Amino acid sequence: MANNNENKVRSSEIELKDRLVAINRVTKVTKGGRHFSFAAIVVVGNEDGIVGHGLGKANEVTEAITKAIDEGKKNLISVPVFKGTIPHEQESTFGGARVFMKPASSGTGVIAGGAMRAVLESAGVKNVLAKSKGSPNPHNVVKATILALSELRDPMTIAQTRGVKLENVFNG
Q1: 94 neighbors 143 (Cβ within 8 angstroms)
Q2: Is the model's pLDDT at 140 over the cut of 50?
Q3: Is residue 9 predicted with pLDDT exceeding 80?
């Protein structure tokens, strides 16, 4: 498992785009009646190897989205995108959600479902085969996808760890 501290990125110098994954209306029943509020989950990324997610809760939808974007900017990680795809297969779970990602050849596109697609596109992955299994809860799917992306290792890191040249990583 990768150390998350080495993948953290600062958001101050990066141009980030945000994607709304889900909005949930939450009802609290009090003796005075029903009180409605909103929870929004947003994925932010620069579409070039940096991605993060955030959850915002507020009484108004726009305020919840703004809070989620601010939270997402605090949780950025760096993703090794290699020739427009991920460097190797990766599987991850979070709660009841299980995700599986596999590198794809150029021209394949992002083959993934809703919440996973938002995360992968925000990270800048252009070609990938991905499957979401288990719970379809968007919160857990987003967190499982980000966890899987944070555990990816680029070929340079693997070459340094093994103490071999970069060309030998793919051959041996």
Answers
A1: yes
A2: yes
A3: no
